[in-house]
Specification:
The chain is of the alpha+beta class and 363 residues long. 29% of the residues lie in helices and 26% in strands. The chain starts with 6 loop residues before the first helix and ends in a 7-residue tail after the last helix.
């Protein structure tokens, strides 16, 4: 992955972080296809209904012309998939060079188990962090960002919180916008349904486990006690069957350079270049297309995606950007800025209980 950058390449990338009159964003749109081929069914995520009456469903919007667009992977979900590219491999035989670009913070929670901060959904603002000795340092970092617009401590402690955004909604209220944003949507979709029938391997009423009357009364009702435990026939009729995309399935990745250039703090220029390097690494890393059961996507080999620099005027210009270039730039920027220290902290149940008992005015 290591690549030596030319002076022109280094100058071009540095300008993205330094020049406040420069491009507003980098953008890449790439077409994806199901592993079974174009037009094959795929399964979007299901979401709980707004009220508690309806059933979970897909996020599908209908445009004014009747076209239906389905969310295949949301902004938050994409961020959670991209962030582990910086995770240190637990198998020593599988080194991850990207892990050297950020501090590795592990939270131990007993019996030899631990979880990385790179795997926590709310990053440095997660409840898990507030239940460790990192609580005070995290609060100080958020407070510095909130009051002095200083992102230095955030970058030393949890720099991916700057890359993918974080909202310390349950403590200081500090809100850091995303620099890398990605979504996957399918256009012109048709919704499918599917049906299934569970048949138990034995006739449990005949064996005297329960009566035939109980069996007849409860089979077919998925909410009945016997059905829940798998002792009677249970049909599942017209449940979620995925969607077929008549139009393209597209992943849009944006690197927000305006948000990047607003970051400040000690060694502000080096800070912004460091965060840019991390953002480029995250944005160019190969995508893991296994999003969920029934949704395995690959790149469309017939459509090559390009990165574009987007000017304030809206003009789009191709920019040479690849995984190797991004890593080389990030590696250099990390050496100059200095990567925060690795550490392991211990989850503290007392801190967790204390946090749940806080009054709103004390948060």
């Amino acid at each position: 992955m290591t690549k030596t950058l030319t002076e022109d390449q280094m100058d071009t990338l540095n300008a993205l972080a330094d020049d406040r009159n420069g491009p507003v964003a980098l953008h890449r749109r790439q077409t994806l296809i199901p592993v079974e081929g174009p037009g094959s069914p795929i399964f979007p995520p299901t979401y709980a209904p707004d009220n508690r009456q309806g059933k979970p469903g897909y996020n599908i919007d209908e445009l004014s012309d009747g076209t239906k667009v389905a969310v295949i992977d949301s902004v938050g979900s994409q961020a959670n998939r991209m962030e582990p590219v910086f995770l240190r491999a637990r198998n020593d035989e599988r080194k991850n060079p990207r892990s050297q670009l950020v501090p590795q913070i592990d939270i131990a929670y007993g019996d030899g188990n631990s979880v990385s901060i790179l795997e926590t959904g709310h990053r440095l603002g997660d409840a898990l962090i507030r239940a460790t000795p990192l609580r005070d340092r995290a609060r100080d970092a958020f407070t510095a960002f909130l009051r002095q617009n200083s992102a230095t401590e955030l970058a030393r402690l949890a720099p991916t919180s700057l890359v993918f955004g974080v909202w310390d909604s349950r403590d200081t209220g500090a809100k850091v916008p995303r620099i890398v944003q990605s979504t996957i949507r399918a256009e012109d979709v048709e919704v499918l349904t599917r049906s299934a029938q569970y048949t138990p391997p034995l006739d449990y009423a005949e064996l005297g486990v329960f009566t035939e009357t109980q069996q007849e009364k409860q089979q077919g009702d998925p909410k009945s006690p016997l059905a829940k435990r798998g002792f009677v026939h249970v049909p599942a009729v017209r449940t979620h069957g995925g969607v077929v995309a008549r139009g393209p399935i597209q992943q849009n990745v944006t690197v927000n350079l305006i948000a990047l250039r607003r970051l400040d703090g000690q060694d502000g220029r080096e800070l912004r270049r460091y965060v840019l390097g991390l953002a480029l690494v995250a944005a160019t890393a190969p995508m893991d297309g296994f999003l969920r059961a029934g949704c395995l996507l690959t790149l469309d080999p017939e459509r090559t995606a390009k990165w574009y620099s987007v000017a304030r005027s809206g003009a789009r210009s191709p920019i040479g950007l690849s995984e190797g270039i991004a890593f080389a730039y990030a590696e250099n920027a990390a050496k100059v800025f200095g990567v925060g220290e690795d550490r392991e902290v211990v989850f503290d149940k007392k801190l967790a209980r204390a946090d749940t008992g806080k009054k709103a005015k004390d948060r």
